[in-house]
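Posted in: Protein Modeling Q&A

I'm a second-year student putting together a small comparison for a lab meeting, and my supervisor asked me to include a predicted structure for Transmembrane protein 121. I've never done this before, so apologies if this is the wrong subforum. The sequence is pasted below exactly as I got it from our records. If anyone can share the structure token output, I'd also love a short note on what stands out.
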Amino acid sequence: MADVTIVLIMTSLVLMDAYLVEQNPGPRRVGVCVTVLAGDACFLIVLRYVAIWAGSEVHTARRGYAMILWFFYIFILEIKVYFVYQNYKSQDVDAETDVGVSRRALTLLLSVCMPIVFITLAAIDHLEYLRPYKKREEIRSRLFWVVVDLLDVVDVQANLWELQREGLPLWVEGLMFFYCYILLLVLPCVSLSEISMQGVNIVPHKMMLYPILSLATINVITLLIRSGNLLIYGDTQVSGIMMGKNVIAIVVKCCSLAQYRKHQQASPPADRGAEMQKSSLVDVQINNVQPLVLPRVVIEDFTTILEEEEQSKDEPEHT
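Accepted answer (user: helix_wrangler)
Welcome! Here is the predicted structure, written out as tokens:
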């Protein structure tokens, strides 16, 4: 499974390298090609050492290795996306006929590669401790929301390099790009850590960290970003479908948080009773266990007795 993940990661990085090489014609193309190939080789070496380190650590979970892979993957991928985006900004839009096609192809590439790599890293079908079908479906439904959030963030970020009537201010572009960069870097790792921390006893209402973070950082803020681009800057490229998705996600996640709060208010008495019952059972088991007394074996030294008997026999002979 790790080999498949590394192949997918390297394939998406090589496709981004093709964008970088294609954007630098002339003698610069050879230098850019050598640079990106050297960077990919160093990235493979780092992944190799990370895999060896994660395999040698007994306490390192498989999800920890998946989070490290995702972090490095997005870190390198977004750096290349940034250079591609800057090259697009410096190009003359009127002089190119297929500029819109290449930019939308970049958006399609990111929209396909990121979710596929994330799903491969999650690998629900390879979690042996998730034997019940209901638990696997619960995790799949949560990962589906993560994939939709990834597409939402990519859509906001792609609004920077796709064609627009009027360019956004420089500080707005930088803020949008690096805000999406941080979201792509952190939030999928939070989802993977939630799955790994649950272990065998997966409790759905305790996996609420990612829904809370995504509600605030993705659904609310990206809705504000799209609304601001539409109303203030007159951006016609804003996705109305994603805005509707944000509204639906806000309603659904607010209902889930309300149910979670009700469950928290109702659960303490039951939890306390269960804890008291468990503690009483443990006490009864401890009291019923009889102490194990090991037999003591005493080995006496008979050599001194034999020596005294020999001396007592020898004394009458001398007398």
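A couple of things worth pointing out for your meeting: Residues 2-268 form one domain. The chain has one domain: 2-268.
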